[in-house]
Structure formats: structure tokens, C-alpha cells
Amino acid sequence: MQAASNLTPYEAIGGEAGIQQLVHRFYALMDELPEAYTVRKMHPESLAGSAESLFEFLSGWLGGPPLYANKKGHPRLRMRHAPYAVDQVVRNEWMQCMTQAIEEQVSDPPFRTWLLASFAQMASHMINTESAPPCHFGMPASA
User: Fold this and answer.
1) Do the record's keywords include Heme (predicted)?
2) Measured between alpha carbons, how far is 87 from 22 in angstroms, rounded to an integer?
């Protein structure tokens, strides 16, 4: 995706500061929204580590420095999420938080549309079960 002004998505979102802002708001919404209860309880009490990983991933995914890949190797998102039961409910709750964060931050309509579609596709790819049993951080759903 190239924005109308030929910016990369990384540049269009505001670089490092823009990604940090998006990630901060995303996890704040996960904490605040009752509708995000299921996805929130899949995370540790402190979201700091999750926020750091998401920031590092998004940096490279959006065309900036490949921080996540340099630190942990190829993202392999589906494999890394495999221990956790991700169903349509979890996917939708995650997307609700990300959608609101993007809508609050990204003012360029074509870029916002592209970003939301890209996240929706990625979130749908994480679904690995039809119905997720209760899952708490540190305990895979099959435990």
C-alpha cells in the first residue's frame, strides 16, 4: 500500500510514534471495553509485553524497521497463536479494539480502509477453532 503521497504505510501512520500511539490505544481499549472481555482474559495482567511485541511486529509489517523479525525471527503469527483457542468471538473482539483505535487515529480514508481490511484478514487467519473454551493467559485452551 502506498498512500496518495507515496508514503509507505509505516510513514503514513506516523512512523514509530504513530505505531506506539496505535498500540497504546488498542490495549487501552482492550482493558476498557466490556465487549473485549474474552480476548482480554487471554492476555497477561500486564499488557506491557504484548504491547511491545505488537509494536515490534507492526513496525516491520507496515514497512518500517523489522524489529520483531530481528528479535524473534519470522513472525509465524498463526503458529505463535496456536496454543490459544481463537474463535470468531475472540477475532471480533480483537478487531473491535483495533478498529476503534484506527478510526480514532487514521484520518486518511483510503489508508484507513486498507489498514482495516489488512487487519481483518490477519485476524481471520488467526481463527483456529469454531468455539473457544475458557482460556486464561499461560494455559492453552487444550489444557
Assistant:
1) yes
2) 24
pLDDT score at 64? 97
Sign of CA dihedral 53, 80, 140, 95: positive
Instruction: Say what angle helices 88-105 and 109-125 make with each other, to 10 degrees.
Output: 160
Give me 55's grid cell: 509494536
Residue 121 pLDDT: 96
- Note the pLDDT of residue 46: 96
Asked whether the whole model's pTM tops 0.90, one would answer no
The structural architecture, per CATH, of the domain 9-125 is: Orthogonal Bundle (1.10)
